[in-house]
Specification:
The chain has 394 residues and is of the alpha+beta class. The chain contains 11 helices and 19 strands. Strands 3-4-6-5 form a 4-stranded antiparallel beta sheet, sandwiched between helices.
Length: 394
């Protein structure tokens, strides 16, 4: 995990990082507090409970469980204001090296029941994120606990609870949380814009449509498969031949004469296999369970189900019900294909193929494949986060 570094720069200029960092130094350099460690110590020192404001929209509270009046006021404030949220200290937070001081804090000796809580207003955090995004020429709109930072088709969701929890772990003020969130969103948006540009260069005339965090590329009025923008642009870039295969797969450019049960749209040979899903995954957002072919009863509950998939050495497609409807004569291989077809060189490196029930189909653990049906366990990134020259930040 990378350590937090602090620096300052003029608008559009180079960053000059500080060699020595303390709360007092940061406050003096920037004119506002950037961390909250001093406020934590002040409220912890009050044995009967205290609430310490940091800046607009954020305050820290410490109180013993026995302070019933303090707890009642605290809970009443949360219930009356939906934008006011309380974030307590979890094991993940206090495990951070920045919280080592808490284990030896003298004020907590003999007070094991002390509760530490960060109070944060989501409306103020959202407004601060929107203001910083506007300063960079970007739009921002709030949907519940999510702020979408946007530049045309390129957008990135900023989840306010995640920003707050990470800020709590690092000891950030609300202003620092907002600045870090926007910086991250800007970096993601620039990567997405490079990703869109790469597709347009490889497929001139393609029309790109973004809904939420899914991209659909269309050519000549024919829509391709949805691409999950939370994952696809942010991994290692493949060689040119593999990249071309990926685009053929997502744009469904298989020859009209090919058998889709035997030939992947990317041009490689593929076959039918079985994949194990947990039943909880069937209700995951983005999963189109009505397009899946099941071996087991897919009723809700615990445990797993077996799902048919058609896969080559790189891509996998789970939405086979539509394929079954369009090519019914060849769909019998779902039941007839012998598991022996996976022996020897036919089994790509890293796969586990074992005979299982399902009339001879092979059970394949294939977490390295690109999944177009948004199976939560199968996605792997397939583009790197840099596409040549970056856009100059505004």
């Amino acid at each position: 995990m990378r350590a937090v570094r602090y620096g300052r720069s003029p608008p559009g200029g180079a960053v000059s990082f500080l060699e020595e960092v303390s709360e007092e130094i940061l406050h003096g350099v920037f004119g506002v507090p950037l961390t909250v460690w001093g406020t934590w110590r002040k409220v912890i020192a009050e044995a009967q409970g205290a609430l310490g404001p940091v800046e607009e929209g954020i305050a820290l509270a410490a109180f013993p469980l026995s302070a019933e009046a303090f707890r009642a006021d605290f809970e009443k404030a949360l219930q009356s204001d939906p934008d006011l949220r309380a974030y307590g200290l979890s094991g993940r937070v206090t495990a951070d090296p920045a919280w080592q001081w808490l284990r030896s804090e003298p004020a907590l000796v003999g007070r094991p029941d002390t509760v530490l809580v960060m109070m944060l207003r989501h409306d103020v955090l959202a407004a601060r994120i929107a203001l910083l995004a506007a300063a960079r020429g970007l739009g921002a709109r709030r949907e519940g606990d999510t702020v979408w930072v946007e530049d045309g088709n390129a957008r990135w969701p900023v989840e306010l609870p995640m920003v707050a929890e990470e800020g709590l772990r690092r000891g950030f003020t609300l202003s620092t949380m907002a600045a870090a969130a926007v910086t991250h969103a800007v970096d993601r948006i620039e990567t997405l814009q490079g990703f869109f540009g790469a597709i347009e260069r490889l497929r001139p005339g393609v029309v790109l449509t973004v809904e939420g965090m899914f991209l659909t590329a269309s050519r000549e009025g024919v829509a391709g498969r949805p691409i999950d923008l939370r994952v696809a642009p942010f991994g290692p870039i493949p060689d040119p031949e593999t990249l071309e295969r990926d685009l053929r797969f997502y744009l469904q450019e298989a020859p009209s004469w090919s058998d889709p049960w035997r030939v992947c749209p990317c041009g490689a040979a593929r076959t039918v296999s079985l994949h194990r899903w947990s039943r909880e995954e069937l209700t995951t957002p983005g999963v189109r369970a009505n397009e899946l072919l099941f071996v087991d009863d897919p009723s809700p509950g615990e445990g797993t189900v077996l799902v048919f998939g058609a896969s080559c050495d790189r891509h996998i497609e789970h939405g086979l019900r539509l394929l079954q409807a369009s090519h019914p004569k060849t769909s019998g291989r779902c039941a007839r294909r012998p598991s022996s077809t996976w022996s020897g060189s036919a089994t790509p490196s890293g796969w586990l193929a074992t005979p299982t029930r399902g009339e001879g189909a092979a059970l394949v653990e294939a977490a390295n494949l690109l999944d177009v049906t948004a199976h939560p366990g199968c996605w792997r990134a397939w583009w790197r986060p840099r596409w040549g020259a970056r856009r100059r930040r505004r």
